[in-house]
peptidoglycan glycosyltransferase
Amino acid sequence: MLPLLPLLLCAMLPALAARAAVPTPEQVRREYRGSEAQLLDRHGELIQSLRIDLQGRRADWVALGDISPALPAAVLQAEDQRFYQHEGVDWSAAGKAAWDNLFRSRPRGASTITMQLAALLDPRLQASRQGRSWSQKWDQVQAARELDASWSKAQILEAYLNLVSFRGELQGVGAAARGLFGKVPSGLTLTEAMIMASLLRGPNAAPALVWQRACALSRELHAPATCSEIELRTLVAMGRPQIAQELAPATQVAQQLLNHAAQNVRSTLDARLQLFAQTALRQQLMALRDRNVGDGALVVLDNASGEILAYVANAGASEIDGVTALRQAGSTLKPFLYELALERRLLTAASVMDDSAIDIATPTGLYVPQNYDKEFKGQVSVRTSLASSLNVPAVRTLVLTGLERFHGRLQQVGLSSLTEAADYYGYSLALGSAEVSLLELSNAYRVLANGGLYGSVTLTPRAQPPAPRRVLDAGASFIIGDILSDRAARSVTFGLKNELATGFWSAVKTGTSKDMRDNWCVGYSERYTVGVWVGNFDGQPMWDVSGVTGAAPAWRDVMDYLHRQQPGRAPAPPAGVLARQISYQPALESPRNEWFMAGTESRVITLVAEAQRAPKIIYPAESTIIALDPDMPDAVQRVFFQAQAGQGLSWQLDGTELGQASRAYPWQPTPGQHLLALVDGEARVIASTRFQVRGNGAAEQHTGAAELPAGE
């Protein structure tokens, strides 16, 4: 008696409806999409994979020659022993299955690998919960015969192993080998291959059923593995987390650049540098664990192109992107304040600053800045004030340059997070009360590195970077860089030996925010700018951590790595910058060679005693125009009168005495022309200035109280 199923199939084949053409192997492979997108570094090296398609986990397509021969052997034994003899449909097996099913409660299938592939390629042929209909079965048979006629056996087997589901969401041999055994397909052993083959009949079967099938398959293949060994290996594989990703060094970058499956995006990152930077940061954070430091971020920029070469968003234990998170800047803003003063020729690097106690009246009370070490250095140069990060001279410089102007300068160098008006930050802006991101702050230092030219940064290669624009004076930027590279000037606060002193030319600044919540080290060489932040993402304060002990060691490690083959060179002075040998009288600092903006140079800096200084009005200057801010209530707007050598003198405005001139005097401005004078005890005018207050437009200067950063 002939098997019933083959006869029935033969009878109905002429009645099959028209079907879509079977795809070619090339079409199938071309349309295949892995579930992950890949981030490549600047050299094309894989740096990060990111899961995009959540419906299933698929690796890249694997050629049959890259699959361990053990797997096809095990799969053919388990699924289709006459694969190389039949033409897509095994009529003998189908007949036996039909006959057996007449007497068995559980149906027995007879689908060949070719038939299974046909269903994988055509969703209309896939079975529902009730199984396949007769028409689906006929279509599957026809599709399998067409596949066998137009594809080679190797092509069929390769496609099947790449498309079939093995376990849960693991689709294809690449994902299954990695997910179950942590291997590439070429490394599969015979035992592992038998386990994978045993999963094909029931991808979600219990581990006991899987190893029992694998044990039976082992006997059929005369494999050396014992059932106990197979059971243990199965339990280990089944217990392996299937959706756990390997920790990769650029997750946040991948999330920014990758948006669809099977996407390969080349970034500007350097894989080796990225790995080194992440390792250096982790090691430094481990060294700081006893000081309550848990988080950090690091970024490396190419000065010329603006390409981001390393982007370490965190130490690997957080999803937070520390490169773009906003944190209080601390003293890292001081270089831009002094650059503004040099550019406007209000100060030189040799100018003498008064590092002594100062208090400034604001609408909410007195503002009293302190230095990081709670000590005052007396009379010091601008070079020493900036390099040693003294706070009081910085506040005095801000009074000199103007709060509004400095606020605008910070926005010009790319600190877009300063969205509040200048008076919101107040005089503490000199010490970094504003919040900035590590990326924007590092790019602002890149402006100094490039001689005052601003350019955007990028994570993807650009054929031609956009033309930079000048935002800082080239000469003033050069002098600031020279100060930030000066070990001797830095030694007042940091000593001569510290992590800031590289073996090549580099300019660097540290910063620590209020209550030691944020710690920064940002600096640059001829070719690179490196920024590092350490602290805690939850805002907890660190314990006794400064820029030199916190962020600087990681900065130094990365800088040394970048220049391991070619040391950085000092920049050449631009036109309009002159060098002069200077000395101080009295000898506040040792004689030295100093840089000056042309027209501001001086060979001898003589300090005039306070008692010998002529009284004068510093602010407002003659013919100053002050505009009231229409967005602020009149009652809270203030202008601060400031005088030099005002001891024993009084302020007099429009003939009315206001108070002592020994400190800044807050005055509520009223529209109109005004005459401000310094008068002595007998009402004699010692100095005077005329200014105007207008009732519209933005106020030229306001001050407000804000939290004081620790500086450094």
Observations:
- The radius of gyration is 37 Å.
